[in-house]
Amino acid sequence: MSDPVIQIRGLSVAYGNQLAVRDVSVDIPARQITAIIGPSGCGKTTLLRSMSRLIELVEGVRVWGQVLFHGQNIYDPRVDVTEIRKRIGLLAQRPFTLPMSIYENVAYGPHLHGLRKRKALDAIVEKELRAAGLWDEVKDRLHAPASALSVGQQQRLCLARGLAVEPEVLLCDEVTSALDPISGQRIEARLLELKTDYTIVLVTHVLRQARRLADYVIFMYMGELIEHGPANQVFHDPQEAKTRAYLKGEFY
Amino acid sequence: MGKHLEERFFLALMIASLAIVTGSLVFILTTVVVKGLPALNLAMVTQVPKGGYYLGKEGGILNAITGSLALAGGATLLSLALSLPVVLYLQLFARDSRFVYLVRLSLDVLWGIPSIVYGAFGFTLLLFLGLRASLLGGIMALAFLELPILVRAMEEVMIMVPFELKEASYALGATRLETALRVVVRQTLPGLLTALLLAFGRGIGDAASVLFTAGYTDRLPTSLLRPVASLPLAVFFQLGTPVPEVRERAYASALILTVIILVISLGTRLLARRFTRHVVR
Amino acid sequence: MRRMRFRRLQDQFAGHLMAALTVFAASLVLLIAVALLMRARPLLDIKPLGQLLTSSDWRPLHGEFGFLPFIAGTLWVTGLAMVLAVPPCLLCAIYLAEYAPRRLRETVKPLVDLLAGIPSVVYGLWGTLTVVPIIRDVITPWAGKRLDFIPLLHAGNPTGYGVLAGGIVLAVMTFPVIISVTEEVIRAVPDGLREAALALGATRWQMVKGVVLRRSLPGVIAAIVLGFSRAFGETMAVMMVVGNVAQIPRSLFDAAYPLPALIANNYGEMMSIPLYDAALLAAALVLLLVVLVFTLAARAILLRAVRRAV
Q: CA of B212, closest CA in chain C: separation in Å?
């Protein structure tokens, strides 16, 4: 197993007095696709969003423990949260394009982080739209509103937007569940390509998707980490009874 | 069957009530048009009062029209400068929900304060600052009056911004300020413009708050520190004279004011449909 | 890295600035109250507020500032406006929420909003041009002949300017507030309740009366309180039709002089009379306090109603 990019240590997350994630410790390997699986309400999305402190946007949330990114705890008050979020990107369940043109959507991030040169922005926009497999479809209407794209195209635009700030990690939250099968396949193909350069963490409730994509698997149940390991091992030789039951489809 | 008779009786009452409510609107508008139209002429909207105007001689109310536009425009801008930060703060920055509750409560009270009280307060403020009734004074009083209207209208739009949209911006490493100005404001732009128009309409029609704070003059507004005329007061003062010709001009002034309000109201409705180019739904 | 620091500082600075502006906006009510109180102090130091409110002796030149005639005038006009406005508003709101087809509702609601947008001087103008003449030429003579034996309807004022005119104009002005709030609370009643009533064989009106209105009663009360509060402080329109005679009205046809009209007519002009200015700002303070109490009451009722509806 390659070096871990993110190390989670004793992480617990509570909404009000409801514990959503309970004392989780796990390492996320670099340049692989890690799938977090488990029945709905098991805390997978919460775990995912704790990895770039997006969880803090939820009102009344409390976090204990550490998330180490290259050895540094991102919950350290001295850490600049915007820097963390630049380096750990998110692709959400439903594509939410920003209220601007296709071009501006992709350029938004780099522009925020100080890139003002038109030429350089143009280059980034083209590069990331290509990487997201959207370039050929939109190259003639880059300045059209992003909201005019189809949902599948919007999701790929969100991917391009996320890649444009050059993150190392990409957090993917059920990224194909709002898409039609064809668009879903396209996104999956992109993710497989991207894993040579990026560390990808994928939350999914579709087991077959996890089997198709994952190199490493984390199984959560009721806020607890039950089992984790290389995909082959977890899928073919699960150690825990709960994992076995879940994989057999005894509960969702 | 008693209950069916009762049903019909109350249905009739309800329809009668609807007729009363819509009828009074029609009644008011036709009164203003029927009385105002004959008195309206080009001079009314292109000239300022000339010598002997208030005895029925020549002139118009261009002073009041431009004055009102300046008052309401200035007040809306000033109020925007105060209310937009407040709304963005409540929506994106504030963490203490008790504080937010108190702010909303206070703004609700502000919303109910009669405009005459804003006028009295504005005048007190002018005395305190050593100023007299002026365009600036009127703008201040109206800006306070418009503040709760603007905050409420803008908050209503901003509450509709999907959480995920803000999250998408934060996820790219944007700060709260950047998310506020580049995403939230842009997303809600049509709604914000509608709110501004609404506040502008409220400001241009209000008389009691500018009565002591803006004064009245026959000249066009040129300086922030000089008194300024306004349409509502033009109606009020001209109606109070015994000269029939001048009273007629009060009707015409009311017609102009009403038309402005109608145009704004229509514009608000159109705006709600347009400008939705980039809006994410 | 430097840019990162700059952005963070910018964000923090903006946050503090916005917080400061928010605190300012929130304390504006207090600021207004304190300013009015300070300027009313010279009078309040001599005469306590309670005495001012209950005295009907209004002789500014002699230093007598009894507010009772004005308060009575305000209450008469506002009370009459409520009596006239509440029944049609409730019926109209019920119709819009429960009976009207969607298209009709969507046509009427903008009209009601428009009614709310009409400037108060235009209402005043309408009142002087139509309501006052009708009262003067038709209602007063008729009432003088037929109803004069009822004390409250004694037609002693032939001008047409008076409580009745003020009440009618003010009633129309409060239509939009009462209708829109009432309609909203009625529509917040869950459909399940309606179905339950209808399933028991109730007619629509029985369902409205027995279930919907009972459920939304607090909200309806809040709507009326808000309408009252709005009417209480209304100045220009009332002032233009109510006659402005400093007396306690004895009949619907008498002239009245409501508190806001008193302020509007005299403030800034009678400053040479000692304490006049303080008296008028005390009047403004009274208006502010009344509105404050009513707004808070309406809010409390609405909040409870919403909590119950969930």
A: 6
CB A157 within 8 A of CB A106: yes
Residues of C in contact with A78 (CB under 8 A): none
Distance CA A105, CA A83 (A): 19
Chain A residues with CB-CB distance to B281 below 8 A: 147
> From residue B239, how far is each of B235, B253, C129 by CA, in Å?
6, 10, 10
Nearest by CB to C263, which of B85, B116, B175? B116
d(C-alpha A250, C-alpha A248), whole Å: 6
Task: Report how far residue B77's alpha carbon sits from residue B190's, in angstroms, rounded to the nearest whole number.
Answer: 16
What SS3 class is residue A141? coil
Neighbours of C227 (CB within 10 A): 29
What are the residue ranges spanned by the domains of chain B? 2-39, 42-278
Q: A161-196: per-residue pLDDT in tens?
A: 999 999 999 999 999 998 899 999 999 999 999 999
Please state, in angstroms and rounded to a whole number, the distance separating the CA atoms of residues A33 and C201: 61
DSSP string, B104-133: HHHHHHHHHS-HHHHHHHHHHHHHHHT--S
Which of A129, A151, A132 is closest to A140 using CA atoms?
A129
- How far is Cα A149 from Cα A105, in angstroms, rounded to an integer? 12
Question: ipTM score of the complex?
Answer: 0.92
The answer to whether A187 and A218 are in contact (CB under 8 A) is no
Homologous superfamily of domain range B42-278: MetI-like (1.10.3720.10)
The stretch C117-133 carries a mean pLDDT of 96
Select C68-309's CATH number: 3.40.50.1100, 1.10.3720.10, 2.60.130.10, 1.10.8.60: 1.10.3720.10
Q: Chain A closest CA to B101's CA: distance in Å?
A: 15
